[in-house]
Amino acid sequence: MHIDARNLENNSVIEGDICIIGAGTAGISIALDWIDTPNKVILLEGGGFEYDDKVQDLYDGVTTGQRYYPLKSTRLHYFGGTTGHWAGMCSPFDNIDFIKRDWVPHSGWPISRKDLDPYYERAHEKLQLGPYNYEFNYWKEKLPNLNPFPLDDKVVWNKMWQYNQARFGDLYADTITSAKNIHLYTYANVVDIISNDSVAEIKEVVIKNHTGKTNKVRAKHFILACGAIQNARLLLASNSQAPQGLGNDNDIVGRYFMEHLEHKSAELWLAKPFPTDLYSWKYGVNKPSAELAITEKAQTENRILNGTVSLYSLAFSRGVKSEMDLWNNKDPRKSLERFINSISESREAAEQVKEGNISRAFSLNTRIEQAPNPNSRVTIDTEKDELGVPKTKLNWELTELDKRSIRRIYQLLGQQFGISELGRIRLEEFLRDENDNSWPTDLNAGWHHMGTTRMSNDPKKGVVTANCQVHGISNLYVAGSGCYATSGAPNPTLTLVALSLRLSDHVKRKM
Fold first, then answer.
1. Which residues of 49-67 are buried (b: 16+ CB within 10 A; e: fewer)?
2. Which pLDDT does position 146 carry in this prediction?
3. How far apart are CA 360 and CA 481, in angstroms?
4. pTM for this structure?
5. Contacts for 392 with CB less than 8 Å, ≥ 6 apart
6. Is residue 101 included in any domain, yes or no?
7. Alpha-carbon span 378 to 395, nearest angstrom
8. Is 59 part of a structural domain of the chain?
9. Residue 284 located in a structural domain
10. CA dist 207 to 213, 238, 282, 377, Å?
């Protein structure tokens, strides 16, 4: 069932069993899991079914620290969320991502990879991926020409990826709106969360839109699913009863904001052509491929973060501008257009390069986790948006460990390619000086917002429990990548959906 909240009577009250705030990947995944149950599910979406610049403007904010994209254009504010322009890259987190690492401050989850495995399999259904199998040998038997580089498997391994540009808005709009027990309200922006006097239970949330109407939603359980930045913003802004914000007694809400550092970091020059399709990926083609990764053993010995390395034709990559320079318009449509145009122009230029050593040369692109850092954080501004909610302030701050890890990954790869006599690796300028901890101004990020409501069973170290319940508030939960204690190397969406389905099961048990 679908209701446009702009058409509701002012000061009306909506009641249900569960209220899900946000109809992006996490919120829709949870709502789908409750279809045909006896429970009335209220699903609140701040936008409609298509882009609306006035609604999108509610995501605007300011950034400090390491240069970052305009906040207004890093997420899409309508049904389906940012799957409206994602690349569809999926791979699970590794075992090492969940454990406490003594060289990575603030690392360690209260759950393990094994706890998420059954939910990863269910997440594959929601994302319409292939079988839940990421073993290289499995795919080598299924697909031709997946020849791996002959590198020492004690140091380097092939991390497999699956792809599907599943636009949740297109895939699930009809399913959600036709479900009898799911009540989708569009243009229903939550602007405040109201608790009881002891701040131990949520009573209701207040919703507004640009018509000037104010309404309330009451439920037994509330799930925040607005994304890592907006979840933190809403908790911090809901401060009428808890002066520091809900769930923020220990000043953790908004801290440990993490991104994936994605940047051209080196060149690979092969001694001779190496025939393989293993490391090839083309947008829109849902064929599994691999990226080079450093083993858990080698990460431990070298005391580095987890990361992966992808290969692109050097002739193509040299023409592609930095995403940080391209994605600089507050309108995400205009930034996306510049991004696509740059790729198209570079592809056309690369097609003209048909001979010479350049055909055996590749650009190596890093995707690496960011070390958890309490000073990398989301706070709220004194300036408010049009609906009266304080705007977001993001301070993105990196550490020495982040840069040292990138450099060491390529040193290890360089050693392995040299030993195997496959070729040589040439570091980009920003990595050559081991005493230089600065970052280039065009350092790219993956548009992957993580942390801010991190998971820990200790309320002094995290915002939510292992079951994603906000510490001290019995019926308030957070869904999505904001709950990550560390960010891993893979894109966050597959793990985000798995964790959301695990949360869904927990709420069902409580119901």
1. beebeebbebbbbebeebb
2. 95
3. 38
4. 0.96
5. 59, 60, 61, 62, 71, 229, 230, 233, 378, 379, 380, 381
6. no
7. 6
8. no
9. yes
10. 8, 13, 42, 26
Do 325 and 70 contact (CB within 8 A), yes or no? no
Q: Strands, DSSP E only, in 98-201? A: 156-163, 182-186, 189-195
Residue 359, domain extent: 135-163+261-368+399-438
Question: Helices 113-126 and 25-33 sit at what angle, rounded to 10 degrees?
Answer: 90
String of DSSP letters for 281-306: --TT----EEEEEE-HHHHHHHT---
Predicted confidence at residue 283, as pLDDT, reads 66
State the pLDDT at residue 160: 97
Determine if residue 20 is left, alpha or beta; phi over 0 gives left, psi from -120 to 50 gives alpha, anything else beta: beta
Cβ neighbors of 363 (< 8 A, separation 6 or more) are 264, 266, 267, 268, 311, 312, 313, 314, 316, 317, 318
Residue 253 near residue 232 (C-beta atoms within 8 A):
yes
Q: What CA–CA distance (Å, rounded) separates 27 from 20?
A: 6
Question: What are 14's strand-pairing partners?
Answer: 217
Q: Is the Cβ–Cβ distance between 282 and 290 less than 8 Å? A: no
The C-alpha atoms of residue 416 and residue 86 are separated, in whole angstroms, by 33
The residue assigned the tokens 């939960």 is 477
Output the pLDDT for position 29: 98
176/494 Cα distance (integer angstroms):
20
pLDDT at 180: 97
> Which tokens go with 105?
């401050």
Please write the tens of the pLDDT for every residue from 335-361.
999 989 988 888 888 777 766 667 789
Tokens of 86: 């994602």
Pairing of strands 182-186, 41-44: parallel
Q: Work out whether the CA dihedral 27, 492, 85, 211 comes out positive or negative.
A: positive
Is residue 384 in a domain? no
CB count, 10 Å around CB of 248? 22
> In terms of DSSP bridges, do strands 261-270 and 444-445 run parallel, antiparallel, or are they unpaired?
antiparallel
Are the C-beta atoms of 152 and 419 separated by less than 8 Å?
Answer: yes
429 DSSP β-pair partners: none
- How many structural domains compose the chain? 1
* Closest among 75, 79, 89 to 164, alpha carbons compared: 89
pLDDT of residue 445: 96
Residue 372: count of CB within 10 angstroms of its CB: 23
Query: Which positions of the chain have pLDDT values less than 50?
Result: none
